[in-house]
Design goal:
Layout (H helix, E strand, L loop, with lengths): L1 H15 L10 E4 L7 H6 L4 E6 L2 H5 L1 H12 L3 E7 L6 H13 L6 E7 L1 H13 L28 E5 L11 E6 L4 E6 L7 E4 L9 H20 L5 H14 L3 H6 L4 H21 L3 H13 L3 H16 L4 H13 L6 H11 L16 H7 L14 H11 L1
Parallel strand pairs: 1-8, 2-3, 2-4, 4-5, 5-8
Antiparallel strand pairs: 6-7
This protein binds zinc ion.
Length: about 400
């Protein structure tokens, strides 16, 4: 009797320990061919759309018409504002926000971010800066480098249409901006910046090259793993991470080898979206901390930097994440996959031709102290293990 009583109490406590909070886009439409539904989705947001896209090659593809046509049919006026050709800088955001401000945004206007992480981050930052005019530059609103201004007016509503499967920025509350002096990547962050609507049509990722597919796909996998192992992980995002990994791990090589494999493309787009929800709510870790510095100092593309740092990060954290590694391994095994996440990641790095060492990315050994200093952002604060500068230096020396 008393044992039953005790076990009931402890079960009760376990239930009570379930606690979480979730921030999500208001509406998500996902599926092959769903671009045909763009008109009705966009109509929920307004009548005039400021479009920011990420690729000139998209303009020449049939997708361009297939995206614009449903908008026109729905009576939406589309103003093409900018094409993002790189991860956005302060100047890119300021210039594009000024362009939108000159068009006198009013109620019924919204922004469309169409492209990879760079286009969507530019669009997210511009949606916020179009309505927040206390300072002429986004710099003043950035974490860590600005004058600490915060967004007081709601950003323009945003519709995110990713054309890569990686960053998950379609589901997050921040935009990553490159700062040049000092060279760092910093976030413009606000819960109001989560896109209001998201349209994910995995077919839009078919034109991505194998190298782009590998890097963005490994970014999504890194985000799922770092959120799962993060010190801020929580039950709902853990469930999303487990499912995202079950879908992505067996699909990434197929998407890399055969870009038209729609099942693999769908799995990767799905995993990327889940990784965005997970990281927005549970944080990341060392791979993303260091990737921010590699991007700012050495111009390494985000996905590639994460892919190189992931095996090092798992090894660094291994001793403090044993329980969750074995939980993940059991879950993979139960889904017919090899129950060895560390081995799987090493094997993927080889088969996707991900460089092994930091020097393969053009990093000079004497840059390592600056990389250590540049790694201390919001991402690093989620890492399950605290790392002193000395420890991080040793880790990066070994990875160099
Ligand atoms: Zn990432």
């Amino acid at each position: 009797m008393s044992m039953l009583h005790v076990s009931l109490i402890s079960d009760d406590r376990k239930q009570m320990s379930l606690a979480f909070q979730l921030l999500l886009p208001r509406k998500v439409v996902f599926g092959l061919g769903k671009r045909s539904e763009l008109g009705s989705l966009a109509s929920c947001l307004g009548r005039r759309a400021f479009l920011i896209d990420g690729s000139r090659t998209l303009h020449d593809s049939p997708f361009w018409i297939e995206i614009l046509e449903p908008l026109r049919t729905a009576g939406i006026v589309v103003e093409h504002i900018a094409t993002a050709s790189r991860e956005p800088t302060i100047a890119d955001v300021d210039e594009t926000a000024n362009h939108v401000r000159r068009l006198k945004p009013h109620s019924g206007d919204f922004l469309i971010g169409l492209g990879g992480g760079s286009a969507m981050d530019l669009a997210k930052a511009v949606s916020a800066m179009a309505t927040n005019t206390k300072s002429p530059t986004v710099r003043d609103y950035l974490e860590g480098v600005g004058t600490g201004l915060s967004l007081t007016n709601p950003p323009l509503p945003m519709l995110a249409i990713p054309t890569t499967a990686g960053t998950g920025t379609e589901a997050t509350k921040n935009a990553v901006i490159s700062v040049d002096a000092p060279p760092v990547k910093k976030s413009l962050r606000s819960e109001q910046m989560v896109p209001a609507a998201v349209l994910i049509d995995p077919e839009l990722t078919v034109p991505n090259s194998p190298a782009q597919t590998a890097a963005s796909g490994m970014d999504a996998i890194t985000q799922l793993l770092e959120s799962f192992f993060s010190r801020r992980s929580q039950p709902v995002t853990d469930a999303l991470c487990l499912d995202g990994l079950v879908k992505a791990l067996p699909a990434i090589e197929s998407a890399y080898q055969n870009g038209s494999d729609l099942a693999a493309r769908s799995a990767m787009s799905y995993a990327a979206f889940l990784s965005g929800v997970a990281l927005a709510n549970s944080g990341l870790g060392m791979a993303h901390g260091v990737a921010a510095a590699l991007g700012a100092i050495n111009d390494v593309p985000h996905g590639l930097a994460c892919a190189v740092m992931l095996p090092v990060t798992l090894k660094t954290n291994e001793a403090v994440i044993l329980e969750k590694v074995s939980l993940l391994n059991r879950h993979l095994e139960a889904n017919g996959l090899p129950g060895d996440i560390l081995g799987t990641i090493s094997q993927l790095s080889r088969s996707l031709a991900i460089p092994e060492k930091l020097r393969d990315l053009g990093v000079q050994q004497e840059q390592l102290p600056a990389i250590v200093a540049g790694s201390r952002g919001n991402s690093m604060s989620g890492n399950p293990r605290d790392l002193t500068d000395q420890e991080l230096t040793q880790i990066l020396e070994a990875a160099w």
